[in-house]
Specification:
mainly alpha, 58% helix
């Protein structure tokens, strides 16, 4: 089984760290597991493994997981914003252009009697 196929078969953050032989602190991983794996996934998607040996793919994946882990050790989920919901509510991001939803005051509503 290739390295990438092995990674696809893993089901927990701990399995990724064990398989790729990356050290971690369990208390950190318990809190940041989804963020770290999401960031690693972003790194993997941007990588080109075409023509690479299994050893090179393993080393690259190992480095990507270690980097993703470090990203959140040095920062935090709100600063890194790897999930869509956090990106959409980024106060430093410019407001989306386009029409705003209409506001209808409750005092203007009537019953249909």
């Amino acid at each position: 089984m290739s390295v990438l196929d092995t990674l696809k078969s893993l089901s927990s953050a701990e399995e990724f760290f064990t398989t790729l032989k990356v050290d971690y602190q369990p208390e950190v991983l318990q809190v940041l597991r989804l963020h770290i794996l999401r960031r690693m996934g972003q790194y993997l998607v941007s990588a080109d493994f075409e023509g690479k040996s299994e050893e090179e793919v393993f080393s690259a994946a190992q480095a990507m997981l270690a980097q993703a882990y470090e990203d959140f050790i040095k920062s935090n989920p709100m600063a890194e914003r790897v999930f869509k919901v956090l990106k959409e509510h980024d106060p430093s991001r410019a407001a989306a252009s386009g029409p705003k939803p209409a506001f209808v005051p409750l005092t203007t509503l009537t019953t249909g009697s």
